[in-house]
Amino acid sequence: MSTQNPRTFTLRPAVRIAGWSVLLIWLLLHAPLFFSEAADDVTGLAGLRPLLLLLQILMIAVCCLIDLYISRMRTRKPGSETRLTSFLKKHEDAGSVLKGCMLAVIIAANSLFSYQLIELISKNKTWTILPEYVFLNWLITLMIYLFLVLLTNSVSVGMIIGNFFFVILSMVNYFVYLYRGIPFQIVDVTGIRTAVTVTAGYDIILTWQMVTAVTITFCINSLYYQIRCFHNARSIPGKLLSRALALGIGLAFYGIFILSPIFQAFNVQPYFWRPNDSYNSYGLETAFLAFAREAFPKKPETYSEAKTASLEEAYSGNKNTADEDAPENIIVVMNESFSDLEIYPNVEVSTDPMPFLRSLTENTQTGPLLVSVQGGYTANTEYEFLTGNSMMLSPNSIPYTTYIQEEQYTVASILAEQGYRTEALHPYYDSGWRRDSNYPLLGLADFRSLDHFKKFGYSTVRGYVSDDSDVDYLIHEIEAKEDGEKLFLFNVTMQNHGGYTYDGSEFKNTVHLKNYEGTEDELNQAEQYLSLISLTDQSMEKLITYFENSDEKTLILFFGDHQPSIANGFYESALGKTSEEQDFSDKQLQYQTVYYYWANYDIPESAGEMMSANYLGARLLELAGLELSGYQDYLLDQRESIPAMNAFGYLGTDGAQHEYGSTDESSEITDLLEDYRCLIYNELTAGNKRNESFFGSSE
User: How many CB atoms within 10 Å of residue 357?
Assistant: First the structure.
């Protein structure tokens, strides 16, 4: 009579059931998302949401049962076999081949499925993407999975990492677009430190698409875990071969998608001035890589050292003579997200949010300002102002995180050579956009950041240092100067930073929109933004009133870096046009802020003249009566033919907006733009071979 050994008690089944229960509870807690009337129906699946919820519940139950069954099989008494394991042992060679084929099919199918999840989370209409672009996205996804599988030497580990990676990538893309109005791009990776510091100002709310993707991903990953393909190769040579193949896949990926003309062959053309259209047309991965290819400056076709030398020679001796009676203080306030939303036809406010600034006429020059960014990327407007380099050479980049490796010629460095102490003031973390390391290279010798404000004391608005406190500290720095000291102070504010969903007692809306036809969420965010602009207007009144009563000759430049990142759809409602209906002029309107030059002494007055960020610095020195570099002289001369420009197009002397390379661009303008590109490229890349007498001062 045989006796069976009693089964060893184990907590593993209970632990597994508990894990699946946690996932089920998490899903049920988000169940209202599958029934909410406010759910986005752009994917065409909103009507199926209740069914999708039921299927996910069933999927969790099935995966739990499979998990318990496989776990039970693995705890059977040694020597016992199932029919399947017995069959595979008898046909070991065939089993290995079969297993390999099955895994190959699984990886390929998983890649296609992951691509669909990515587009689902991004709320993209996948059926509108052409088959050739679906193939490109699938190929990109597949190569990334193969790279991870070979690098980790494990099908299970590689696929689990890949599945989580793609879900996280698509969620990041969704939130970047939601709060900035532009999709996730390579420049967001280079600026990750800055992004992390400001995420607290935004609400992170999951959608039913995200919940679905996360649930499915956990279920699929549990199956990979049960497959237990933890080692593709166990021998050292096999492991080395696996890593070598991973390196080969990586190099092939770089060669195909970065170096080769594959995107041109598939007619993938990134729309820099409307990137979301590219993501909708080509898919997230293809569009992301297409934009990444353009993220670094490319040598202009006509570039040569001889050409730049010829251009520089024409301006090298054409500098203004510095005025002995130049202002003692030159102050630049680049105000976070400051703009005038009343430029839109469907925006009507209950109270003017900027009455003081609009009242400035005496010793004032003001008008619309064309910039190269919207809803974020403050550093690019900052870069254009300081250097005079337009973002037209590489619109999909952030020079602060990619280019700045050595000293640059800037407004600040030129003023320093003319006897000004240069200082930067920013009431936030000094590491944002690498300002702590970039500012010294940009000619800003001193940097006062949030740590200095903490010692000085400040008030906050929605958690950010208020513009009122910012002005107080700025005045403090003026009053702390040594006798006879001349100061250039560059101030970047924080009060109006995006994330206009604050709902605390510290701040209440004071400006309201009239007859707005957009969503309530858009309305609330727009009103919060406009109310912040009202506070900025009051702080600027405080600053200018102080210098009206000052004996020190002072020139102030105030401008906004970009328009706000209000909820998706606001700008369509404000314009009264969908994204598809907007023409280039409509889109350029969304890259428009305002500028003010004001002095407490006589300067020429003007109003309504459009400017662009790359011209601001040259005009500033011209108004101050100070020496201009040859490059700044060149910019002022160019402005006679191209009054304003940004990364995507320019304002012509005919008063119309023109996209670069458009059919209405004259050969004269084409040549001017090409010359400018060559000079920008030279300034960025020539290093110590740059012509100092052209880009810098005469000294």
Answer: 22
